[in-house]
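Lecture 7, part B: from sequences to assemblies.

Below are the input chains for today's worked example.
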Amino acid sequence: AQSVTQLDSHVSVSEGTPVLLRCNYSSSYSPSLFWYVQHPNKGLQLLLKYTSAATLVKGINGFEAEFKKSETSFHLTKPSAHMSDAAEYFCVVSDLDKLVFGAGTILRVKS
Amino acid sequence: GAGVSQSPSNKVTEKGKDVELRCDPISGHTALYWYRQRLGQGLEFLIYFQGNSAPDKSGLPSDRFSAERTGESVSTLTIQRTQQEDSAVYLCASSLRVTGELFFGEGSRLTVL
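Predicted structure of the full complex, as structure tokens:
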């Protein structure tokens, strides 16, 4: 069965500095991988997805993630954090069956 | 409708009462998921419907929880004899296919007093 581990429950960065949110997955098959974002009091929104095409995936709001099969990782990055990036981020894995969410990483952006 | 619709948006109930939460997915979406999000915690998978296949109920926390879906339309999540630990936001999501993008509703916030 597939599983996903988000290595940090909280990440704090200063505005303008890079963001790194880490995600490792376990899957028996070639997985599809997603990052979702949930802003306070808002619904979840898809940031980006990997479905076996290019290993570097670009998403909305300047975020991107790189699929590394050898490391079973799908870390989310952004070169320069903005205050509006403060939210909770979920890494999601799917292979043949249902989607499985990680526990989430809360991103705090300091001014 | 344009998106996934959930009702009620807020429900306050007394311990021991039954509640029913409704999800209206995007038309044509064959996959439907229910998740629970307790305060300060991540998403907890509850149940998954895919077309006319038998649902995956592996995430339901107890036999007080049940869900139904008629075909590829509306789904209801029922919690019987509610307990305080059932207090959470219950999220419904639908998808065009199993590994497709999930579209989430706004959630139903349940408070059990």
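Note for the exam: Residues 3-110 of chain A form a domain with the Immunoglobulin-like fold (CATH 2.60.40.10). Keep this in mind when comparing with the next example.
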